[in-house]
Amino acid sequence: MSYKRVLIKLSGEGLANKGKHLAIDYELVEKFANQLKTIISRNIEVAIVVGGGNFWRGTSAEKNGMQRVRADYIGMLATTMNALALQSGFERLNLHCRVLSSLTMDPKVCEVYINEKAKKYLRDGEVVIFAGGTGRPFFTTDTASTLFASEIDADAILMGKNNVDGVYDSDPKFNKDAKKFPIITYDELLEKELKVIDQTAASMAKENNIDILIFDINEEDSLIRAIENKIPNTIITREREK
Ligand code: UDP
């Protein structure tokens, strides 16, 4: 399928450089920016949902005794920090970019999310980064991705993973015989309880008939090649035959 508007999910952990102890790997951000410039030059609109796991995860803080709702708001702030860092990295390479947050922030920090505004920026060729997840605790940025992809009517979600190139029947990092699915339906994913995305995200993507492409974000030019369907991947879809 040729895409007109895509939503890219970037996990927080994928932005970090553990070797250099950096929460944000600026070289990686530059690589993303260059790829996005190419994608936008092909008249494909790009929205991004960014995670916060490089800074904070609500469930981990809850295990350490923090009230879950408060812990999740900290997580949402973490996604906003990532969004602003991405914006600044993108702008350095003259890529026009807006951060729209589901949490109401001071307007000096970023803009508040309004659906029509997001779509206008996308039509104008600007990258739109959705910050703050869904704006509610007990959700993840995977669910925010399916929510925003539905709201902006994206053709697909491109979900880059760290050193995994698709959906397997067991974890390929621990099982060398793990079998990869070239394509899998949301029903199969839910039934087999495969953990590649959380169940709320999978149910919402199924209901709204949005395909998710899983690929390895660390591959060379992964975003461009994902859009060209020239990278190893798994497609998660509602029905095998469309
Ligand atoms: N979060 C939330 N509501 C949302 C999205 C995120 O409360 O709609 C919080 C939650 O605490 C989560 C954290 O933000 O652990 C970071 O998001 P996520 O774990 O999805 O980031 P990623 O794993 O993609 O880096």
Automatic annotation (TrEMBL):
Q: Which reaction does it catalyse?
A: UMP + ATP = UDP + ADP
Coiled-coil positions are: none
Where does the protein end up?
Cytoplasm
What is one GO biological process annotated to this record? UDP biosynthetic process
Q: Where is the Aspartate/glutamate/uridylate kinase domain?
A: 4-216
The protein's matches in InterPro entries, at most eight in alphabetical order, are given as:
AceGlu_kinase-like_sf, Asp/Glu/Uridylate_kinase, Uridylate_kinase, Uridylate_kinase_bac
Cite the binding residues for ATP. 9-12, 53, 57, 162, 168, 171
Tell me the CDD domains matching this sequence: AAK_UMPK-PyrH-Ec
| Record flagged with keyword Iron | no
Q: Main localization of the protein?
A: cytoplasm
Annotated keywords = ATP-binding, Cytoplasm, Kinase, Nucleotide-binding, Pyrimidine biosynthesis, Transferase
Gene Ontology cellular-component terms for this entry are: cytoplasm
Which Pfam families does the record match to this protein?
AA_kinase
Enzyme Commission code: 2.7.4.22
Q: Which GO terms describe its molecular function?
A: ATP binding; UMP kinase activity
* Annotated SUPFAM superfamilies: Carbamate kinase-like (SSF53633)
Question: Which residues does the annotation say bind UMP?
Answer: 52, 72, 134-141
Activity regulation behaviour: Inhibited by UTP.
Q: What does this protein do?
A: Catalyzes the reversible phosphorylation of UMP to UDP.
For this protein, the record's HAMAP family field holds: PyrH_B (MF_01220_B)
The family assignment reads: Belongs to the UMP kinase family.
Subunit architecture = Homohexamer.
What name goes with this protein?
Uridylate kinase
Per the UniProt record, the source organism is Metamycoplasma hominis (strain ATCC 23114 / DSM 25592 / NBRC 14850 / NCTC 10111 / PG21)
Q: Which gene encodes it?
A: pyrH
